[in-house]
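Private note to self, pasted from the team thread so I don't lose it. Backbone tokens:
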């Protein structure tokens, strides 16, 4: 929660019906408004359920890190302060998780759907996985299908086992936006036991002018996007013997993020940022030449690297893919 006084109550109130089964950690990330006072208010009103954590501003990633450092629950989920969870789905998720902790082989990752709560949209877009994941049973990566451009595993759709994240010393970079991509990417090679519930748990709010996925803001913060992009490259280049289905998924996700970074650098229109695009692709090539060839020759890769009018025309089509991925106009 950073300067979240106008909307954080809605988020917290959606989580409180979990009662004592849930530990709500409100991370005040150096806010300058009434966020700290609201966090303390809830902690005082709901002792044993709500904990207020105050820290110097470290960005979204450090807020996630602080939550993980302080969490005592068996499972860990991030809910951004402008988002919320559906009441009925929440109770179904909690009922399942209470049974899951009794299993001999612990659940590593639970997946559910999420809803784009887009300001002005007549119809709510729901991201579902029932066409690509087994439902209501445990499974592994061998059983996953093909993910489409808008069906990636995102922070909104995932709940991890807390100790799974701690087992490989998971940590996100400070003062960096777009780390939600790392949160839904780096742990995947360590998650062996997965479960999917076809219910719409998470409501992802889109529409604030200052939101990080606003296109103009993304261009201004492009160095942070590149930092996340490179850490994703390091992740897949550094893991050997990946399950072939998981590797295919992680490559496709990286393909999209490379396109996001590249298209934002192109749309900025500056020579400096075009040079950064070339450097990003060199970074990928140096990290893993095989992955570089595969992504450079993909439809997205060719599109963001073609010169001239043909390249510009293709970049418009790729921008539409980026819009679907992030949900912005």
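Design output:
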């Amino acid at each position: 929660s950073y300067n979240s006084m106008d909307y954080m109550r809605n988020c917290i109130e959606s989580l409180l019906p979990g009662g004592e089964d849930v530990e709500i950690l409100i991370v005040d990330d150096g806010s300058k408004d009434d966020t700290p006072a609201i966090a303390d208010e809830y902690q005082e009103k709901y002792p044993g359920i709500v904990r207020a954590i105050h820290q110097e501003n470290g960005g979204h990633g450090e807020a996630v890190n602080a939550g993980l450092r302080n969490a005592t629950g068996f499972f860990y989920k991030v809910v951004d302060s402008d988002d919320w969870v559906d009441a009925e789905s929440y109770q179904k998720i909690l009922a399942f998780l209470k049974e899951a902790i009794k299993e001999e082989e612990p659940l590593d990752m639970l997946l559910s759907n999420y809803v784009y709560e887009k300001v002005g949209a007549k119809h709510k877009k729901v991201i579902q996985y029932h066409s690509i994941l087994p439902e209501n049973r445990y499974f592994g990566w061998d059983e996953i299908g093909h993910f489409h451009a808008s069906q990636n595993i995102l922070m909104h759709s995932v709940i991890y086992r807390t100790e799974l994240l701690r087992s490989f010393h998971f940590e996100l970079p400070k003062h960096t936006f777009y780390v939600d991509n790392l949160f839904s990417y780096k742990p995947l090679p360590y998650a062996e036991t997965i479960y999917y519930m076809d219910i719409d748990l998470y409501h992802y709010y889109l529409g604030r002018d200052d939101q990080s996925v606003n296109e103009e803001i993304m261009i201004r913060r492009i160095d942070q996007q590149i930092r996340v992009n490179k850490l994703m490259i390091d992740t897949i280049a550094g893991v050997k013997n990946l399950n072939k289905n998981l590797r295919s998924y992680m490559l496709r996700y990286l393909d999209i993020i490379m396109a996001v970074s590249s298209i934002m650098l192109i749309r900025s229109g500056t020579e400096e940022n075009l040079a950064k695009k070339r450097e990003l692709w060199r970074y990928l090539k140096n990290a893993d030449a095989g992955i570089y060839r595969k992504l450079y020759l993909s439809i997205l890769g060719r599109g963001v690297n073609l010169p001239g009018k043909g390249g510009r025309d293709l970049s418009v089509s790729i921008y539409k893919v980026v819009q679907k991925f992030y949900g912005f106009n």
